[in-house]
């Protein structure tokens, strides 16, 4: 059996492979991400892990109706990246 992916690897792979058409991000609920995460990581909470990775700047989370949208930092909408940079700088 192949070695399990890390949280970061799993999430980044999900963002790339679960997105549709011209969208750069995935909806955590509607894409099936949350359920897939729980199944792959034996019931662990995807919200806690995605929030931690967002704090570390490894992914970007945008609140949306019914959940959140997950993006890779380099593909996040410009305003979100600016807010993220200011937050890391301790200015907001």
Index terms:
Arc Repressor Mutant, subunit A; about 45% helix; alpha+beta; globular; 3 strands; about 90 residues; three-stranded antiparallel β-sheet; 4 helices
Structure description:
With 92 residues, the chain is an alpha+beta fold. It has one domain: Arc Repressor Mutant, subunit A (Orthogonal Bundle), CATH 1.10.10. The chain has helices spanning 7-18, 33-40, 46-55, 78-88, and strands at residues 26-27, 60-64, 67-71. It has a 3-stranded antiparallel sheet. β2 (60-64) and β3 (67-71) form a beta hairpin. The protein is globular and about 40 Å long. The model has no long low-confidence stretch (mean pLDDT 90).
């Amino acid at each position: 059996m192949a070695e399990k992916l890390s949280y970061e690897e799993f999430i980044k792979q999900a963002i790339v492979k679960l997105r549709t058409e011209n969208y750069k991000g995935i909806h955590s609920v509607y894409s099936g991400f949350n359920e897939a995460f729980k199944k792959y990581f034996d019931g662990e909470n995807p919200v806690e892990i995605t929030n931690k990775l967002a704090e570390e700047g490894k992914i970007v989370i945008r609140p949306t109706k019914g959940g959140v949208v997950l993006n890779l930092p380099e593909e996040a909408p410009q305003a979100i990246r600016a807010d993220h940079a200011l937050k890391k700088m301790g200015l907001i």
